[in-house]
Amino acid sequence: MARFIDVHDGFVGVTKEQLMAAHDADTAIENEEGVHIEHAWLDPQSGKVFCMSTGPSKEALMRIHERAGHPTSQVFEVSIEV
């Protein structure tokens, strides 16, 4: 499985509970694309959310986020780790 980090914009002022609800929307359907969204981090001041996931492709992850209501085109495969 490939590992990905993606970035979402537009989450200014979002609370931990709201981030958890968005994450739960992803995890409820992630198996349909063979994706697993491992972690999500939020900077409520900038409105950026960062997610770490594994899955078969960038496109599969993008489909899950789109269907869950928070699409992003900022998906990066991180294949080198130290």
How is the largest sheet built, in terms of strand order?
2-3-1-4
Written as H for each helix and E for each strand, in order along the chain, the element string is EHEEHE
| Separation of the first and last Cα atoms | 18 Å
Shape: globular
Structural class: alpha+beta
Q: Any low-confidence stretches, pLDDT <50, length ≥5?
A: none
- Report the portion of residues in β strands: 25-35%
Question: Short summary of the structure?
Answer:
The chain starts with a strand and ends in a 5-residue tail after the last strand. It is α+β, with helices and mostly antiparallel strands. 28% of the residues lie in helices and 33% in strands.
Structure description:
The chain is α+β, with helices and mostly antiparallel strands and 82 residues long. It is 28% helix and 33% strand. The chain contains 2 helices and 4 strands. Strands 2-3-1-4 form a 4-stranded antiparallel beta sheet. Strand 2 and strand 3 form a beta hairpin. The radius of gyration is 12 Å and the shape is globular. The mean pLDDT is 97.
Task: Please describe the structure with a list of short key phrases separated by commas or semicolons.
82 residues; alpha+beta; 4-stranded antiparallel sheet; 4 strands; globular
Write the layout of secondary structure elements.
Elements: E1 2-8, H1 16-27, E2 36-43, E3 48-55, H2 58-68, E4 74-77
